Amino acid sequence: MQHTHTRWIKIFIAVILLSSGCATIANLDLNKLYGHESSENRAPATAAQATIGSPATVFYENKVAPIIEGRCVVCHACYDAPCQLKMSSAEGIDRGANKEKVYHGSRILAATPNRLFIDALDSPEWRERGFYTILNEREQSPRANTQASVLAQMLTLKQQHPLPDTKLLDERFDVTVDRSQQCPTVQEFSGYAKSQAFGGMPYALPELTDNEHNTLMSWLESGAYMPAHTPISEPLQHAVNELEAFLNDDSLKMQLSARYIYEHLFSTHLYFSELSDLNHQPQFFNVVRSTTPSGQPIDVIASRRPFDAPGVERVYYRLQPVMSTIVNKTHQPYAIHKQLTDKWQKWFVDANYEVTELPSYKPAIAANPLTAFAQLPVNARYRFMLERAQNTIMGYIKGPVCRGQVALNVINDRFWVYFVKPEVANSPQVNDFYLSQQDNLRLPAEQESSVLAVTWLEYASRQGDYMRARNKFMRTTLEDGQHFIPQDIWNGDGENDNATLTVFRHFDNATVIKGLVGKPPKTAWVIDYALLERIHYLLVAGFDVYGNYGHQLLTRLYMDFLRMEGESNFLAFLPPQSRREELASWYQKASPELTQFVEGKINPFDQPTGIEFTTEHHKQELYAIFAEHVKKVQPRRFRLQDSELGRNSKALLGQLANIKGISASILPELSMIMVEPQDSDNPEIFTLVRNSAHYNVNSLFSEDANRDHQNDDVTLVHGLLGSYPDVFWRVKEADLAKLVAKAQQIKTEQDYAAFLDLFAVRRTTKDFWEFSDKLNQTFMQHNPIEGGLLDYNRLENR
Fold first, then answer.
1. Which of 35, 82, 96, 512 could form a disulfide with 139 if both were Cys (CB 3.0 to 4.6 A apart)?
2. Which Pfam families match (predicted)?
3. Is pLDDT of 492 > 50?
4. What local confidence, expressed as pLDDT, does residue 435 receive?
5. Domain layout of the chain by residue ranges
């Protein structure tokens, strides 16, 4: 037995040495043929090349860039990009790839952040961080530029081994989200090509056309020149200077206010709407912390979190142009205009308060906004977040992550969000109450990125203490049950369409849209100032995608408290007995400990409601009361009736929204539908969203066991909703009746497969890329500000 064991060890070592030896031999051969590899070999462009309008620049911008964006960026653009290869910018292509996964939920220690444009700024720095080139960094000759380039070899491999001519991909293809990654260097490519013959790029999608392939290969042969970014216009630069001057005023009042603004906007894409043609995509900016003031080159402070100690005595807030292709999954557009900055002036500058000293950056203070910004009026803070409430909530979905299952399996698949009006938060009693609760409202981010999740019990105890104190405060300080009447719900001041939101969860990603979309949902949240602030600092400002298992688990566990707090606020508007009944239906099969916590610590079952209900269906009646209160600010986007299809066609499509139960559960999370009208060349786009029902959303590791398939349903909207399509449907308007009838007949996987045979654009469909271009083009035409390229990493193989 010992002899056999030793023999296998020797064989294993021999295999490792052989693999290593093959890579070494390949490296020696490449060195002999094309010289040693060094990022310095990619010589800067000549003056002729770099000129605006030069042939090289025009060729890249008009021919190469559209192919890279339409065929590569759709899979390579975020933390979950295969091999960390982000092809959405020249800097990302130059940076190259890395074999380590960013989404690694079981790591014991926090990983080193590798954020493009932040943690390193050029190829030599990225090489030191373990990134390897996908371009040729040896002798710069046409042959070397293709033979010593991973990108060129991947493209060639795909042309040599295109997708098999089959309906579905076989076992040679793995398209699951958590698939093992194959990240060969150029030295390892020969072995990769032998073992993964169908692993060329684009992976598990149709090959490029000959013209597209030849264009990219010609570009690579000539040195893969990518022009420098065009400087922004003088009017834009003037607007940038003005905003930076506002944010960097020397007064303590403005230094603290600017710190608050930055920590809430660091993940957004700012644009100057008064200087933009809103029919086209504008120039976007990120607000960053810099060691240098306006007028000097930006020197980004590369901290893990926006509230970490900057390491310099004075921080400057600067606007850095976004230099990457806009992709929908990370895009949070935020319009800057005089009306908004006048409000900032009113809330933060003109308001009557004093700042005596700036708060510390120590984690125990900086990670808790209720402590760090105690000197800022609660009215200013709450008004700032409410003004763009969609952006505030969207931050935890599009901000620091691209795959958010840790944060998202704690929410239901669709729910509505309302907000407590700012006047309630602006009272001196409420301010004093929040100050008294600073210790109970501490957040996990103060533990930084390598915490052990055992501290959860400590936070659970504090949350219970806070909710009991809050319920007592509401009973004894706020007269006449002020929090329990419709007038205490924010109505957007009669003009702001951020007053209500709908949140859709799509398993490990989600979408936040303005308005109350779809049928009345099972649950809803009512969010007040303290809750909104903590959601942001838990899941956006305080979340580290490179954090360890404990950090991510503790974040997920704490989010349970925040969800239940929002739900509790909504339940408080119902009569006490209805609260108990609703809560029981929301938390079926919950553990005794959870039931005790929910019923005994956070819900004011004894507090009477201030609403006189006239029916027996209290929740539905409450939804109707709230709807009347906020009806003036309900947006029109996503409404089926706004489609330009014929009345009969819209009626047919509307029937899809009635699919429910097991039939709905067979459908994927997001089905994007292109309808080709009878009398127009402009397609109409719709999205069918599956809403997965759960007995409760408190189970960490057994989501499948907690699914309530019988209560699944769908929501149909006009337009594209979501960033990660699971399937595409394509239908001519004349065939809508057939599509709807077939969809309604889906009862089994076989039924669904037969439906896809008729209407799906699968991964293997020959004109997939032509369809993709048309879809993205239509999306951007209708949504030039909010639109961005979709991501194809979750396309199914069914």
1. 35
2. CTI
3. yes
4. 85
5. 31-221, 231-358, 400-635, 640-782
Q: Does residue 746 surpass a pLDDT of 60?
A: yes
pLDDT at site 459? 80
At 147, list the tokens.
Answer: 């033979």
Residue ranges of alpha helices (H) inside 712-784 are 736-744, 749-759, 768-782
CA 375 centroid distance within chain: 32
**Taking the C-alpha atoms of 373, 496, 400 and 463 in order, what is their torsion angle to the nearest 10 degrees?**
50
Weakest mean pLDDT among 20-24, 306-310, 314-318, 526-530: 20-24
573 within 8 A of 623, measured Cβ to Cβ: no
Q: Which residues lie below 8 Å from residue 538, measured CB to CB, with a gap of 6+?
A: 396, 443, 444, 445, 555, 558, 559, 562
Give the residue-averaged pLDDT of 407-436.
85
d(CA 9, CA 3): 10
State residue 699's pLDDT score.
65
CB atoms inside a 10 Å sphere around CB 32? 8
The structure tokens listed for 356 are: 């005596």
Distance CA 472, CA 484 (A): 14
Asked if pLDDT for residue 280 goes beyond 70, the answer is: yes
User: Which pair of tokens denotes residue 475?
Assistant: 């009973």
Tell me: pLDDT of 1 over 50.
Answer: no
Q: Distance between CA atoms of 440 and 469, rounded to whole angstroms?
A: 10
Sheet holding 414-419, edge to edge: 510-514, 501-505, 414-419, 523-527
Tally Cβ neighbours within 10 Å of residue 397.
Answer: 26
Q: Which two tokens stand for residue 401?
A: 């992550």
> In the chain, what is the greatest distance between 2 CA atoms, to the nearest angstrom?
86
- Does the pLDDT at position 613 exceed 50? yes
In 3D space, the residue among 478, 442, 482 whose CA is nearest the CA of residue 463 turns out to be 442
Dihedral angle computed from the Cα positions of residues 787, 657, 397 and 531, in that order, rounded to the nearest 10 degrees: 130
| Contact in structure between 544 and 304 (CB atoms under 8 Å) | yes
Q: What is the DSSP string of 249-304?
A: -SSHHHHHHHHHHHHHHTTSEEEEGGGS-TTS----EEEEEESS-TTS---B---S
pLDDT range class, residue 80, cuts 50, 70, 90: confident
Q: Which region among 181-190, 427-436, 602-611, 634-643 has the lowest average model confidence (pLDDT)? A: 602-611
**Does residue 242 register a pLDDT over 90?**
yes
What are the tokens at 118?
Answer: 């932040």
Beta strands across the sheet bearing 316-321: 316-321, 285-290, 269-272, 333-336
Distance of CA 403 to the CA centre of its chain: 7
Distance CA 517, CA 505 (A): 13
d(CA 79, CA 480): 50
Q: What is the pLDDT of residue 482?
A: 52
Check residue 580 and give its pLDDT. Answer: 87
Q: What are the φ and ψ backbone dihedral angles of 437, each rounded to 5 degrees? A: -105, 15
> For 530-564, how does the pLDDT look when each residue is reduced to its tens digit (9 = 90+)?
999 999 998 899 888 888 877 877 887 888 889 98
- 676 three-class SS: strand
Q: How many CA atoms lie within 13 A of 175 on its CB side?
A: 22
Type of residue at 395:
G
pLDDT surpasses 80 at 12? no
Q: Which amino acid is at 726?
A: D
Q: What is 640-782's CATH number?
A: 3.30.1050
- The per-residue pLDDT for range 432-481, each reduced to its tens digit, is 888 899 889 888 888 777 777 666 677 888 888 888 888 788 777 655 54
CA nearest neighbour of 361 among 311, 407, 325, 425: 311
pLDDT reading at 21 higher than 50: no
Task: Give the DSSP H or E segment for 14.
Answer: helix 2-34
Contacts of 177 (CB under 8 A, 6+ apart): 80, 403, 508, 793, 794
